[in-house]
Amino acid sequence: MPAVRDRVRVVVQGRGRRAGRAGFARLLWVGAEVITTVGVVVALLVAHQVWWTNRQAAAGAQAQVRALERGWAEGGGGEGGGGGEVGEGVVGEGGAGVSGGGGEVPGVVEGGSGGGSLEGAGEGAAPSAGGRKPVAGGGGGPARDEAYGVLRIPRLGLAVPVAEGVDRRAVLDKGYVGHYPGTAQPGAEGNFALAGHRNTHGEPFRYLNRLREGDEVSVDLRGRRYTYVVGKVLAETSPGDVGVIAPVPRSSVKAGYGYQSAGSYITLTTCTPEYTSRYRLVVWGTLRNVVSATR
Q1: Cα→Cα distances 261→14, 67, 214, 265, Å
Q2: Which residue, 161, 151, 291, 138, is CA-closest to 223?
Q3: Catalytic residue numbers?
Q4: pTM of the predicted model, to two decimals?
Q5: Given this model, what pLDDT does residue 127 score?
Q6: What residues does each domain of the chain span?
Q7: pLDDT confidence of residue 39
């Protein structure tokens, strides 16, 4: 009898070990399924952010460009665009320092506050360069978040709407470039400063680093084309370097970068390196001429 009991005991113990191994295997299987599911979800989110948002925003931006051009051709402001006349007057070739409207930017009033940070990807508050802020709506200028112009960069094959303000959701995430409130409008003395995404949401400024001295950048605004020539590039600066969008743009972080005298400037800002918002890339240009826009 003792031998029989021993054999029974051995059999029971063997079954327990097999059951434990089976439970552990099921646990590993469930864990693998969870990890796989999470990986698929993350991959889908990345694909949505990097691919789908680009397609959606780029398509919407191009539709807005066509709407603006159609509106101008019909004598209006375009669908969702328009705004008042800015930068009247014409400058000749090489006229980097000639004002288009007596030096005062139409559609701005005194009283804006300084400070803030460069708006390269939607983070933070946009600074008000030069102590001025735009009048919202009315005949003085474009309303906040309103698309009212088209930025063209031939070297990059880029044509993208320009909207008033640099709000991330209302402007930048639509694939537009945003005009920093308080900076000059095209053609006027001062600094026409713009921000745009470098990655995702249409990424209009993805290849901004390819611009070189002498490249042309133009802005169409209801029948007029304001052409600027790239003069300087600041490859990297901090988000707090608001000097780069001042009326006379000059880095307050990197000594020796920028300009020293009044003129009519354009500034393009975006994040760098790609897929980060740690620093800002800045491209500056000076106004060459103003002509009737051709489409």
Answers
A1: 90, 38, 19, 11
A2: 291
A3: 271
A4: 0.72
A5: 47
A6: 57-292
A7: 74
